[in-house]
Specification:
By secondary structure, the chain is of the alpha/beta class. The chain has seven helices and six strands, in the order βαβββαααββααα. The chain has one domain. A hairpin with a 2-residue loop joins β3 and β4. The strands form two sheets. The chain has a four-stranded parallel sheet with strand order 5-2-1-6, with helices on one face. It has a two-stranded antiparallel sheet with strand order 3-4. The chain is globular.
Length: 212
């Protein structure tokens, strides 16, 4: 297919990553205003108590309409340690955690502090695309376009809040094995790391089966 436009995302959901397999060109929006309570600074994993949200704290500026490019990460609390402890607890018994965790671990080292959220997300995105063997490297937008005519726009439609989710005719989430599914059942469209740690090198092919 043609071209798609995505927001920045922290360990984005499976739906987000599926677009890299479906579209020839992906652009990440870097000029929009930062939006709270979105995938831009949060992800969802499958923890021992079910769906678990991990949020990167950001520095709150007086100007609420701050470009996503300029949002700074708040390192005043040890969120990296907390996130990694949660990820390890959730997936250490998954089939492929030991294969891939060392490629993500550096981003949760307190000595590895990337100043801006957008840059942090982009680095992690490129690492995950490499792990998934997806060669569709993302480009960045050159300006903000409210209604792009030549891109399929997913900036607002891929969202963690149910009331804001828009139907995506190009995505469905079939079941795959999950660590805690016997307790809480299958949880769909979690962070890509849920699929990666459970399916390993097959994750890319599993995503292809999710497309209509």
């Amino acid at each position: 297919m043609g071209k798609a436009l995505l927001s920045s995302a922290y360990l984005g959901p499976i739906q987000y990553f599926s677009k890299f397999l479906l579209f020839k060109e992906i652009r990440i929006e870097q000029w929009e205003h930062y939006q709270k309570q979105s995938y831009r600074n949060r992800c969802y994993i499958y923890g021992a108590n079910g769906r678990q949200c991990l949020v990167i704290p950001v520095v709150h500026e007086q100007n609420s309409k701050i470009p996503i490019r300029d949002v700074k990460i708040d390192y005043s609390n040890p969120w990296q340690k907390i996130h990694w402890k949660s990820i390890e607890s959730a997936y250490r018994h998954s089939p492929y955690f030991s294969y891939f965790f060392d490629m993500l671990l550096p981003y949760y080292d307190s000595n590895h502090q990337i100043r801006f959220l957008f840059d942090f997300n982009l680095e992690l995105l490129n690492v995950l695309l490499k792990i998934l063997k997806i060669e569709n490297n993302p480009l960045l937008t050159e300006k903000y376009d409210k209604q792009p005519s030549d891109y399929t726009d997913y900036r607002q439609s891929i969202h963690p809040k149910k009331r804001l989710i828009q139907h995506d005719p190009l995505f469905k989430c079939n079941k795959y094995p999950q660590v805690f599914q016997e307790k809480y059942g299958f949880l769909g469209n979690l962070s890509i790391i849920d699929l990666l740690f459970n399916e390993g090198g097959h994750a890319r092919d599993v995503m292809l089966s999710f497309q209509y």
